[in-house]
Amino acid sequence: MATTALGTVTEENPRPEDANTGQPVVKDVAVPAVTASTVMQEAGDTENEPRKRSLWIAWLYMFDWYPSHLSKEESRFLRKLDAFLLTFCSVAFFLKWLDSSNINSAYVSGMKEELKLYGNESNNFGVILGGYLQSAAYTNLNGVHGMAGWRWLFIIDGCISLPLSIMGYFIFPGMPTSGKPWWLSQDEYELGQRRMRDEGVEEPKKISVQMLKRLFCHWHWYVGVLAYVLFLSGAYPHGQMSLWLKWQADNWGTYTVPQVNTIPTGAQGVSVIAAVLATSLCMVYPTWIIFQVVMAIFMFANICQMIWFIPHGLHFTAYYLFGVSAAVTPILVPTVNYWMKDSAEARAFCTGSMLTLGFAVSSFYPIVVFPVVEAPRWKKGYIVNFFFILGCWFFLSLGFFLIRKQEKRQKERALVDEEDLKGSDIQHLD
Questions:
Q1: CATH 1.20.1250.20 residue ranges in the chain?
Q2: pLDDT tens digit string along 51-65?
Q3: I want to staple 255 with a disulfide (CB 3.0 to 4.6 A). Which of 240, 249, 331, 404 is the partner?
Q4: How is 413-429 classified by DSSP, letter by letter?
Q5: Is 9 helix (H, G, I), strand (E, B) or coil?
Q6: Is the peptide bond before 258 cis (omega within 30 degrees of 0)?
Q7: pLDDT (tens digit, 9 = 90+) per residue, 375-387?
Q8: For the whole prediction, is pTM greater than 0.70?
Q9: Nearest to 220 by CA among 321, 112, 104, 343
Q10: Residue 215 to residues 212, 221, 296: CA-CA distances in angstroms?
């Protein structure tokens, strides 16, 4: 077998040797080069490339969940994954926020007065996803069996969460290397592993000292962790609309308790739309562009509250626009994971660092920056928050810039290596 610039020549019989040198004579025979695509075609598995997309109508492709260039087996595999994973993860994420934020709903529904929480005792709780549930509990269960409506909210949350946790034990598949889940066939399981290898995702190994040294000697970990820590704390005002409505209700009687619980759910509706729309657009447009738009809206909402003396309608709009911040996490975390796709251990360590440090800072951030006794006009809070949002914006934008430079260098090195390899394999005859 000999390799030429035109392809590979394989002969069953030895080539004639040159009379002077004794080396095999290589003839310039034009043979089509064998590529991965031709091999797949010979094996009966045709590789179809995605169609080129027009920049102006590319947004339409975000609804093309199972593109036509995928094989039938791959489309069926992805549909099955979506049916199990998306269903479980969506419900689990909703209940996670429902469980962690129900105290905020209870706070504006009578818990403050009953437990005499007039200081900062309720400061460590986030957004309101249980507004409608709390409103229904207050209206229909308040006083039942001698318990206040806000107490029933905790009972209802527990009854909803327990069955889902049991279901997750049997449904959630774990990592592709964790073993075949019962709802996948062996062929589908192997297809999933092959897709990971094709994307350059390496199998996980043990976290070693060498890996940590490499991780801390590069920029990826620092940029990802700083961006997420700043965002997680900076997103605190999202979900605090109920305190503003309660403040207005206490001073002017503008809103009822059910209204205080239900009106802020509009911001959660914005969160759902923003998260789905932004992440879908990231599939067809550059991620860094979508991120810039999301952060600009997020910053605008914070500036409005920082100014404070604005029209009543703009206050409403600003609180609702805070919901756009829900699109940051599904952009930020996968982006950082993509930066380190060649090391499963680095991804795991970085994601763990982001969550650990992010929630560690956000555990005391509201107490220091957004004390309840100053609600809803946090003068210093929105100023500090301005710089947290700006910091997140800066660091992830810096990461987008650095990764583009890194990928450009890698492509240049790959081209040089390929040229060197070709040069070493070609024999020239004088």
A1: 206-430
A2: 555 656 666 666 667
A3: 249
A4: HHHHHHHHHHHHHPPP-
A5: strand
A6: no
A7: 888 999 999 999 9
A8: no
A9: 343
A10: 5, 7, 31
